[in-house]
Amino acid sequence: MESDPRAFLEELLETPSPSGFEGPGRRVWTEYVASFADEVSTDAYGNAVAVHEGDPSVDTEIAVAGHADEIGFMVRDVTEDGFLRITAVGGSDRTVSKGQHVTVHADEPVAGVIGQTAIHLRDGDEEYEEIDAQFVDVGVDSGEAARELVEIGDPVTFATTTAELADDRLAARGVDNRVGTWTAAETLRRASRRDADATVYAVATVQEELGLKGAEMVGYDLDPDAIVAVDVTHATDNPDVSQTASGPVELADGPVVSRGSANHPALVSLAREAAETAGVDYQLQATGSATGTDADAFFTARGGTPALNVGLPNRYMHTPVEVIDTTDLVAAADLLAEAVLAAPAAAPFEAPR
After folding, report:
1. What is d(CA 93, CA 132) in angstroms, rounded to the nearest whole number?
2. What sections of 194-234 are H helices per DSSP?
3. 45 — phi, psi (to 5°)?
4. Rg of the chain's alpha carbons, rounded to an integer?
5. What angle do CA 94, 99, 102 make, to 5 degrees?
6. Sequential pLDDT tens for the chain (353 residues)
């Protein structure tokens, strides 16, 4: 991976942006794309769109989107003895939250830990408590002292930072879905550098983890000819994961092109042909009912917008230690850059026969 895109990826991963509080991550993203986009705009809720204006005589518009938000927590209450009761933001996993370092994003960041009773003091194999029953310890001993630091509604994220593993692999909090917004930005950079004839949009949506909310807004407002949602998908190449639900997906074997449900067959073909042209490996995944990504909101926008989900293999999703292979990200950006270059010749994206 080139040095500037690598630095951009790491800055995205290091910048907390839980659903509803995507501002810090959005600023990182918009600052990066502004150097090669013709225009960058943000709507009232923080969805960000960057555009490469193509040849004015070519009437094809295609968007590549990733969601900018991550799962997390929020301060729900402050107890009189100074502990913070929390609630989940998105699909936070109660089985991995206890015993973790966290940051409360108040006016100034506040360090804390989610308490976990020592194994010596627990009665047997106690079940994991729901998030609403867990608490954050910020080190104070009174509610008054805690309220001087935080207030109800402050977002909370794991304090985990990026770790380089062997070869080209990274572990981090919020991989889901910083890698999608990275890929959207990098697709736009490649399209701009190669002066694509199509008008190409890179999009960073908000509140995907809360129900595809940002995609619903953008899908209506942008109204492109086609849109690709780039998100993580479950890698099934570690020992504890069955391939029954997701099929075989492996790190470093390339991005995953989804088939079925929201995925328009013409865009599936476009992506597969683009991969061949770019000389990158890709994987296929069956999505019989839904993709579980922004594509599910995009394809029903404005009466029907051709959509595609491209997945980036990810181990340990919705944990503080998600693992990716960065070669998959580069391959995805290369594939999608070829796809947007070829889009005018493939359009219009007609209904399947």
Report:
1. 12
2. 213-222
3. -100, 0
4. 21
5. 85
6. 788 999 999 999 999 999 999 999 999 999 999 999 999 999 999 999 999 999 999 999 999 999 999 999 999 999 999 999 999 999 999 999 999 999 999 999 999 999 998 888 888 777 789 999 999 999 999 999 999 999 999 999 999 889 999 999 999 999 999 999 999 999 999 999 999 999 999 999 999 999 999 999 999 999 999 999 999 999 999 988 877 767 899 999 999 999 999 999 999 999 999 999 999 999 999 999 999 999 999 999 988 999 999 999 999 999 999 999 999 999 999 999 999 999 999 999 988 77
Please name the amino acid found at residue 93.
Answer: D
Q: Phi, psi at residue 327, to the nearest 5°?
A: -65, -30
Distance from C-alpha of 223 to C-alpha of 121, rounded to nearest angstrom: 58
Residues 225/69, Cβ–Cβ less than 8 Å: no
Listed in sequence order, the DSSP H helices in 223-325 are: 265-278, 295-298
pTM: 0.96
Topology adopted by domain 3-70+173-346: Aminopeptidase (3.40.630)
Which own/partner pairs from 333-336 qualify as long-range (CB within 8 Å, at least 24 positions apart)?
A: 333/183, 333/186, 333/187, 333/190, 334/190, 334/278, 334/280, 335/254, 335/255, 335/271, 335/274, 335/275, 335/278, 335/280, 335/282, 335/310, 336/64, 336/183, 336/187, 336/228, 336/230, 336/271, 336/274, 336/310
Question: CATH assignment of 73-158, given 3.40.50.2000, 3.40.190.10, 2.40.30.40, 2.20.25.110?
Answer: 2.40.30.40
Tokens of 320: 């503080």
Neighbouring residues of 231: CB distance < 8 A, sequence distance ≥ 6: 66, 67, 176, 177, 180, 208, 291, 292, 293, 294, 309, 310, 311, 312
Residue 62 DSSP SS3? strand
CA 261/CA 251 separation, integer angstroms: 24
Instruction: List the structure tokens of 327.
Output: 């070669």
Domain spans, the chain: 3-70+173-346, 73-158
Is the link from the previous residue into 177 a cis peptide, with omega within 30 of 0?
A: yes
Question: CA torsion sign, 275 to 47 to 13 to 85?
Answer: negative
Spatial distance between the Cα atoms of 346 and 353, rounded to a whole number of angstroms = 16
